[in-house]
Design a protein that fits this description.
- By secondary structure, the chain is of the alpha+beta class.
- The protein is built from six helices and four strands.
- A four-stranded antiparallel beta sheet has the order 2-3-1-4.
Length: 173
């Protein structure tokens, strides 16, 4: 079924009507490993992973490069020698972190990015931290809970951010 036709029908097909979904098909994917790549943005220390003193001193200089790298990795992965599949397996919810699922090539892509930018004064290891591997996170929810984002209503569950809310057009119900 063409998605546009389906979406048009679910929205009611026009004319003030509405649609009903009568069946749903979910396509599941194989479980892949989780890795959280960080660059020492102040959050990593709370998780038991600290950047070296050399890398911490370089953060003011590195921050614009790190931001450009993450945007490139996600938006134009070919510029850092990464496939779209690998790029699509990663995301950035904010801060200097990449959340990736599967065997990604982030550390090699970061090294290639530094070479393209002619950056040579980065210490060995390129200041890239593999936080999930070091801290032992099994998935994003485990990271969120251990980083202090647990849900007060559902103990042991990750917090929804942003939190779901009900809004209306005129402010009333």
């Amino acid at each position: 079924i063409d998605f546009n036709d389906l979406w048009y029908a679910v929205r009611g097909g026009g004319g003030g009507t509405w649609g009903v979904v009568t069946s749903l098909y979910l396509q599941l994917h194989e479980y892949t490993t989780f890795e959280l790549y960080g660059f020492g943005d102040g959050v990593t220390g709370d998780l038991g992973v600290e950047p070296t003193e050399e890398c911490a001193a370089l953060m003011p200089t590195l921050t614009p490069l790190l931001t450009e790298f993450m945007n490139t990795y996600i938006m134009v992965p070919s510029l850092v020698g990464v496939s779209e599949d690998h790029s699509n397996a990663c995301g950035n919810p904010g801060g200097l972190r990449l959340f990736c699922f599967g065997d990604e090539d982030v550390d090699n892509a970061w090294a290639r990015f530094l070479v393209k930018k002619n950056v040579t004064d980065i210490p060995e290891g390129n200041c890239l931290l593999k936080i999930a591997s070091v801290a032992g996170f099994k998935d994003h929810a485990d990271y969120a809970i251990r980083a202090g984002a647990s849900n007060p209503r559902l103990e042991g569950r990750a917090y929804d951010r942003p939190q779901p809310e009900l809004t209306t057009l005129n402010g009333g119900l």
